[in-house]
Design goal:
This protein is mostly beta strands. Helix content is 12%, strand content 36%. The chain has one domain: Jelly Rolls (Sandwich). The strands form 4 sheets. A 6-stranded antiparallel β-sheet has the order 1-2-3-11-6-9, with no helix packed on it. A 3-stranded antiparallel β-sheet has the order 8-7-10, with no helix packed on it. The chain has a two-stranded antiparallel sheet with strand order 4-5. The protein binds 6-O-phosphono-beta-D-fructofuranose and fe (ii) ion (FE2).
């Protein structure tokens, strides 16, 4: 009746994790609609649609309340139209489930947004743990010249809601190249959420 405890070795350079139970990859052609510069995205997808942008290795012991899902995210460095490579981003389907990310290698930022539209941006890199509190939409962005590798952990019953970002025309801020660093700029297609949409998020909490 007891699950056995397990240990997992993580390669900080690749995100490979021993005894992972699942893996998925997101390639350029899977990520249409994420970047502001659609023509630049189309050109990149035409040339190299099969290129992996990020890959997730994970362990899902159970998706029941009280257990944890943990694993690693590996993200290549790159830009589309001056915007850095990023994950799709989501809020947890049970909106009040939190998450932690630990920097293994590379440099990036966690772009965070509340349903009401407030933004926070937190840098992540080696030996840095980032806490994503309940009710924050989150997306990671590789702002460096090397792969960004992070390990993560979140409650097993969290789930992911990706549509919350798409319905708002993207996140309120975009992370773009600025010299050899990054800057956050306003996303002109962003539409703040109406009260009913915000209420829908709070209705998922317990
Ligand atoms: O699910 P997304 O937004 O594509 O991003 C992937 C990241 O988010 C997670 O789903 C965790 O919330 C991880 O699998 C991974 O770190
Ligand atoms: Fe998450």
């Amino acid at each position: 009746m007891h699950q056995p405890p397990t240990a997992h070795r993580i390669d900080p350079a690749t995100g490979a994790m021993s005894h992972a139970t699942g893996r998925y990859e997101k390639r350029l052609r899977d990520l249409a609609g994420l970047y502001a510069d659609a023509p630049a995205f189309d050109r990149a997808a035409q040339e190299a649609g099969g290129r992996i942008v990020y890959a997730v290795n994970e362990v899902r012991p159970a998706t029941t309340r009280g257990d944890l899902i943990f694993g690693t995210t590996f993200m290549e460095p790159g830009q589309i139209g001056g915007e850095y490579y990023m994950t799709r981003g989501h809020i947890h389907a049970r909106g009040n489930r939190p998450e932690t990310y630990y920097g293994e290698s590379g440099q990036g930022v966690m772009l965070l947004e509340t349903p009401e539209g407030a933004t926070e941006i937190v840098e992540i890199g080696p030996k840095t743990l980032v806490y994503v509190p309940p009710l924050w939409i989150h997306r990671s962005v590789n702002t460096g010249p090397e792969p960004l590798v992070m390990s993560f952990c979140y409650p097993g019953d969290s789930g992911q809601d990706y549509e919350i970002i798409a319905r708002a025309g993207g996140m309120a801020k975009r992370i773009v190249a600025d010299g050899d660093g990054w800057a956050a700029i306003d996303n002109p297609t962003y539409r703040p959420r109406a009260a009913e949409e915000i209420a829908r998020v709070y209705a998922t909490t317990d």
